[in-house]
Amino acid sequence: MAARHNPHTMEHRLLKAVATGDANLLEQVLGSQSSATAEQGEESCLKGVTAEGSSPLHIAASCGYLDLVKMVCAQDISLIKARNNMLDTPLICAARAGHVDVANYLMDCAIDEQDLRARNLDGETAMHEAVRNGHLPVLQGLMARDRGLAAVVDENGVSPLYLAVASNRSDMVRVLIGETLNDVSYSGPDGQTALHAAVYVSREISESLQCWKETLSREVDDYGRTALHYAALAKNLGPVKLLLANSSLAFVPDNEGLYPVHIAAIAGNVNVVCKFMEICLNYDELLDNKRKNILHCAVEHGRVQVVWHICRSSKFVRMMNARDGQGNTPLHLAVKHGHTIILSFLMMDARLNLNIMNNEGLTPLDVAFSKIHTDYTFSSAAHGTRLEICQISGAQKERRNQAVTLMCPRAFYTSLYLS
């Protein structure tokens, strides 16, 4: 790794010339230096660098001064290989700044393939920089001269294609995948693919990637998640419908055992959950590594609308009394987390079992008393909250005489249970 700072050895007039684009001054400096070098055998002034390690060619290329770039290269072509403290070459600097004429000239002057594929301190090539900074003409020039650049990934495993997708640049994506190329990398950070990023930004790009490589939708990242897992997080139903053209993807769990429908329930994306419920007809059987079903997940994270939709489904009866790995039912979790509205939804079904104990031997009522004891006081006058034992007349009296209403305003409690 290069030292962070170098001694500044560049002659002041030379720095001024390349920084301001003064071709006349550069010509004077190079002319006088050539004479002195020939007479005294001194090193060329072009070998001088700034404190950041940049050569005159780095500076001229960054500023887009093509005439000066040509003048410097004519004096010392080896400078196209020069690296500054960030290991940038002049070509990387030109690509980052979007100076397509300078970049094209430096590409034409490249001595070998390594000059085009040079990587900086972050492992990025000129193509990475062109894509990240949105310079389509530079990208086109690089692809025309060395398509192998599209296969190079940076230190984090990020490819130019992933960057193009994440930047929502469909024009750049078309350039990168426009022809059938087996060596174009689609990788991203943490083992993701370009399709993982596409579901967040564009249905058009998602469709293009799937047409280009059909297997992308089945690839998982380091967390075991497919693109469908990430689409389930988004509130846009479009990517979910697109990926569910292959319905088997709905049954791929991640490393934590979470299916895409679990992710949607945790995120509170009601429309996405409903779509999965249409596709996954056995959604009530899908459990994560903690043996939680989607109702457990929705209740635990307080997703009121998701719980309401699940309560109206035909599979609710099979999930409402299910125990997770700690023995907790959805009712245990609703009481534990103080989700009063969710608690009311669950209590509306007469088939809810209030006597199920978790692995600690606690029923939902025990959990409620424990929570009141540890977290709350009984100053109901100040806070308008109370714990009450419901007394309901009629056929449901026996079932609900132990029902818990936790942190519930008296008016809400009265209207909900005593009306």
From TrEMBL:
Sorted UniProt keywords: ANK repeat, Repeat
A Pfam family per the record: Ank_2
ANK repeats, residue ranges: 52-72, 122-143, 156-177, 223-255, 326-359
Superkingdom of this protein's organism: Eukaryota
GO CC annotation: plasma membrane
InterPro entries per the UniProt record, alphabetical: Ankyrin_rpt (IPR002110), Ankyrin_rpt-contain_sf (IPR036770)
Name under which the protein is recorded: Uncharacterized protein
